[in-house]
Design goal:
By secondary structure, the chain is α/β, with parallel strands linked by helices. It has a five-stranded mixed beta sheet with strand order 1-2-3-4-5. The chain is built from three helices and five strands; from the N terminus they run E-E-H-E-H-E-H-E. A hairpin with a 2-residue loop joins strand 1 (3-9) and strand 2 (12-21).
């Protein structure tokens, strides 16, 4: 099971993910991203993958939905601390063309 912490600082909301990012995370990820999207003054949502050891295609779909919803409110989504298997999956999916990844 994945845990998500939402931290808001100035114009950035950071979603810190911890665990396996898969379909079972859908409700929690939606709730956390809704909280970030509805915070006045937020210009960036940074999704932090430091503690994620697995993600699947449903996780990629959730990121795409977040990107679309954020774009509609002029908020940028960035993917941070992507290493190992997370970086490999993002590379295969060509996510560097859609997101700023660091």
């Amino acid at each position: 099971m994945m845990k998500i912490a939402v931290e808001k600082k100035e114009e950035t909301a950071r979603l810190t993910l911890n665990g396996r990012f898969d379909f079972s995370s859908h409700r929690d990820f939606r709730h956390a991203s809704d909280e970030a999207l509805q915070t006045p003054g937020i210009k960036e949502i940074a999704v932090d993958f430091t503690n994620v050891d697995y993600l699947d295609s449903s996780a990629l779909g959730m990121l795409l939905l977040l990107r679309e919803r954020a774009h509609n409110t002029h908020i940028q989504v960035t993917l941070r601390n992507c290493t190992g298997i997370v970086q490999q999956v993002l590379d295969v999916a060509n996510f560097q063309r859609l997101f700023t990844i660091s």
